[in-house]
Amino acid sequence: MNTYVVTAHKASIVEHTQVGNFFSPLKRNLLVGRTTRIDVYAFTREGLVHTLEIPIYGRIAVMKLCRPPGDDQDQLLVLTERYKFFVLKWNANTNRCETLAGGDVKDKIGRMDNHNIIGIADPQLRCFGLYLYERLLKIIPTDYSREAYNIRIGDNVHEIVFLYGCATPTIACLHGRDSGYLRALEIHQDVNPVEASQEVWQIEIKASFGTRIVAVPEPLCGVLVIGEDTITYVANPPRGEPLSVRIPSSLSKQTVGRVDQDGSRYLLGDDTGALRLLVLEKHENKVSGLKIEELGTTSISSAISYLDNGFVFIGSRFGDSQLIELLKEMDPESKMNLRVMATYPNIGPIKDFILVEDEKQSRKVVVTCSGLSLRVIRNGTSVVEQASVQIAGITGMFSLKRKAKDPFYSYLIQSFTTETRILEMTSATEMQEAVIAGLNHSAPTLFAANTVGDTIVQVTGDGIILLSSETMTATSEWKPPNTCRITVASGNVEQLLVATSDGSLISFEIDPASKSIVEKGHVQLENEVSCLDCTPLGDESRAKWAAVGTWKDVNVQLVSLPELKTVLVENLGGNLIARSLLFTTLDEKTFMLLVADGDGYVVSYLLNPNGRADDILSEKRRINVGTQPATLVPFRNQNRMFVFAACDRPTVLYTAFRSHKLLCSNINLREVTHVCMFDSEAFPECLAIATESSLIIGGVDDVQGFHVRTIPFDEQPRRITRVPKARLFAVLFEKQDGLRERKESGSPKTEMDGVVLLNNDFQVLHRFNFQENETGCSLLATTFGNNDEDAQEHVVVATAYNTEGTLRPSNGASLSILMW
């Protein structure tokens, strides 16, 4: 058996960010590294606008913007986890990325330091440095004709940076574990690699696994050592006792983002999401003191980039990335000196997930344990509700404009079993029921539209009425013979097609001069018509053909307009009867005929308007959209055409980019009976959607995207399972004391790790806490006994006891929680 694996959702975690002039000297860009790709954003008044995606063949380990002396455009250094190295530069003439240098920097000997891959660039871009192997730093001269070489830098390397303001490329290395030291090494590129490094100075300093060092730019120069509880400034060369300041809370990780070009201010993010501002007080271009200011709370940051004018991008591995604005004064509501302007969803890191049935929408969704939240992920399309009202029994809907040239619709025609009702937009924000004297309100409407000559046409079972848009009075009428009624109708701005109960098919045209209905064709069919369509293709105002389906024939007929001569009879196959037809133009060059049958399938054909009879329809495909007959309605969204299949499982149909393949996307509604476009002033690019019990007006969001719902927690969910009979979720949580301390501005709670039971709306019903030093490892929902129907459900949890001084737990417990 072969397995086809494809990425359904691109990586969303942010590990690297850089700000610089990547595209041109005049425009600054934000570059965001997301595992295997780099997204480039432009700064606009509306916020960050995505302009380019650079795919990377490998996982990004290092990403840095650097600028050669005398150049006004930045280059991009990238190193992957498999030690592939390359330098990119954007060519504005060709609008493409060019590779200036690249290659494999892996050595045949050396002990890899996979947990501490470091890439650095000399401020004057005289060379790059890559720390890949223990004790060795690989130097890559920017004169790419020269070969790279290794220099020895010592043991237990935590961090390495190039220093500013040095005549010779100089690095600062932080060494040590419990107690460490910081030293500076000059790198001489024109000597033997064995003698290429020379120590300039060394100073003892406290270091730990999470300690960071940051090079301070000119004119201040020097190094910032950012530890768990202290920040220290060391001048280059050291002058007297280093300056230090204590961090308000002891933390294991700090993320740093420089604010000013001279390095006088830095943003600090920690592993609880707190954001602080570090200020280097200076006197005569020398640092005289350090000061820390609390700003507020953001997502837990993995990268921080200051953009401009007080705007900052917070990239996160553990939550949603954010665009924030720094405030000069504290916000009275949030009590913070920052404001979140935009959020960029991130579903990673996923610790566990389950696939469950969404009872409200009757489809599968994925529930993940992601960072400090649960995420409910579904593939489909969301209708963003703008307005709704409880109305039951709608059998059809049509939208009308007051005049044909109006930019927006003003009337919503609702057809019921015995009558027609009208909702009118009376203002930009209000709708109310209306009566149009010229229309037939006492019968259900089969078709209504604006037509040529500034007229409106309405088709009911009793006949056809043509109204003047100016006077709203009838200018022309047509009625079927007394022995029959109109059963199906379709039309466009110039043509009209109706079928009667005796099997007659009649075509009409609208005469704009006399504002009258003119009969153009009449044929007698063997069977009664089940559905019709005469939608024009492309930008045409008239249809060349009409599609006709009948109740007893398992085929679709294409007839010419207006004479109604049979052009083609297409057999649908099996016992399928067409229930809805639609000619559609899903993109500029893709014409299709869609046929919805009675079993919830949609059959699609590529349509060749200029082909011979045997070449008009081709590439037949069949898509299942539900279990009941679907009604096909075209609509436009974000300058693209789509088709709404209204049925028990409402679906949007569309074509892939530059492809004839028809794709489908589920809608977040349980059942839809009818749909029509209702692009009004109050509801731009919206649809009117009828369900069994309500009328909804709403817009359609990204049709081809994943939709994520976030359920935030103050703890980290590690495992999740579904308890089916009890209709609950059981979630294994890991305590986050530092996070609780920050959020509550007090001492951390004493709650231990535990299991939380959630209902279908993810509300907490009960919490079961573990003992001190007890950690949950896994859980599952099961029943005990032979009779599964009567057996009671249990949640079984496996735990381990963490004892100080032991690397691996040797004791644990198995717990069973009874559901009732």
* Discrete helix count: 1
How many strands appear in the DSSP assignment? 67
Distance between the termini: 43 Å
How much helicity do the residues have? under 10%
Rg calc: 34 Å
Low-confidence stretches: 738-750
Portion of residues in beta strands equals over 45%
Specify the overall morphology. Answer: elongated
Q: Which structural class matches the secondary elements?
A: mainly beta
Quick one: biggest sheet?
A: 4 strands, antiparallel
**Arrangement of strands in the largest sheet:** 1-2-3-4
The average pLDDT value, as a whole number, equals 88
Main traits of this protein?
820 residues; mainly beta; four-stranded antiparallel β-sheet; 1 helix
